Amino acid sequence: GGQLRDGFMLGIKHAGGKLGGLTTTVTVQDDELKPDVAVGKAKQLIERDKVDFVVGPIFSNILMAIHKPITEASVFLISPNAGPSPLAGKGCSPFFFSTSYQNDQPPEVLGKYAQDKGYKKAFLLAPNYQAGKDMIGGFKKHFKGEIADEVYTPLGQLDFSAELAKIAAAKPDAFFVFMPGGMGVNLVKQYRQAGLDSIPFLSVFTVDESTLPAQQDAAVGFFSGMTWAPNSDTPQNKKFVADFEKEYGYVPGSYAMQAYDAAALIDSAVKAVGGKLDNKDALRAAIKKADFKSVRGPFKFNSNGFPVQDFYLVKVAKRADGKFETQIVQKIFEAQGDSYAKDCELK
Q: For position 58, what pLDDT does the model report?
């Protein structure tokens, strides 16, 4: 959440302190990771604060809860992270846009990589909730080898000794895992301590700029999949990363980058309609045009409001200044849209 806020605020600063030339007021609300709390706060933003845009959240279950009350009020909802499949297909809305990706896409990168590398057997691990199942499903979409085991752990589990023993016994060619936050911090350290690091560590949202300050050297060389990395070679990205680190003192991750792009997207759309925010059709058309330079490179919207963009295999590295970041290894998908857009009625 902090990365999201910092990235968005830097986007406003780079736009001269005003989005689309209009005085910009930002109200930050904490959803407390509780869907009912989030709905109450979303309604407050719409009814009391009369906001023109809602930007957020991080978690998909929160997005699923707030999507209807916001979009049905004809307020634009821009997601700089969460991308659940129901909102990409039949549940798409003309008032919803994402500057991130659809949830299945990052794990598809690792599945395709594992398949292309000729790995015959993979061991899969994720927490036992919807996102965990989605990530495993995304990996299996492209990986056609043998699944040594598919293990789901209780959400919040921090001791992985039983699972690590299973991995050691299964001797897979690759290990794929989705273990966000503190769970991922512990898993990475325990995987390294268990001496399993000769088995390629393929992951999503397990080693990224939000967890690397805690994982440090234990995560170096481990893989993930993303649309961008702090070392992405675009002029926009070099400025974004340098200014972000100067302003906030830490390395930005995808959460910050996607929120920064959300600010640039809103800036471009408000400019295009000459600040006339009450003309919702014109504003929607301007958002859909995505007439801004994304820090990740080529970016456009699909019919469902999710991006069409490139995806990369990224790897954790230690920089010369001692800080840790993910870095691009190779492009896996080019101009990739998600597989649910065909079920969306919008054109």
A: 87
- CB neighbours (10 Å) of residue 88? 28
Q: In whole angstroms, what is the distance from residue 169 CA to residue 231 CA?
A: 37
- Residue in this structure with the two tokens 């909102």, named with its chain if needed: 87
> Cα angle vertex 322, ends 319, 323, to 5°?
70
Our separate counts of H helices and E strands in the chain read: 11, 13
Q: Which long-range contacts (CB under 8 A, 24 or more apart) does 74-79 make?
A: 74/280, 75/46, 75/51, 76/52, 76/283, 76/284, 76/287, 77/53, 78/53, 78/54, 78/262, 78/265, 78/266, 79/55
Q: Go through the domains of the chain in sequence order and give each one's CATH number.
A: 2-101+232-308+338-343 (3.40.50.2300), 105-226 (3.40.50.2300)
Q: 108 is written with which tokens?
A: 């598809």
Give the per-residue pLDDT at 129: 84
**Residues near 321 by beta carbon (within 8 Å), at least 6 away in sequence:** none
What local confidence, expressed as pLDDT, does residue 347 receive? 85
Helix intervals (H) in 194-313: 212-215, 235-248, 254-272, 280-289
Residue 168 tokens, joined: 């050691």
Strands 22-23 and 307-318: unpaired
Cα dist from 14 to 92, 107, 199, 251, 260, whole Å: 31, 32, 43, 18, 9
CA distance 80 to 313: 20
Beta bridge partners of 308: 300
pTM summary value: 0.95
- Element (DSSP H or E) covering residue 279: none
10-residue averages of pLDDT along the chain (347 residues)? 95 96 91 93 95 92 95 97 93 98 96 98 93 91 97 95 98 97 96 97 97 97 98 96 98 97 98 96 98 97 98 98 98 96 95
**Residues 6+ away with beta carbon under 8 Å from 44:** 29
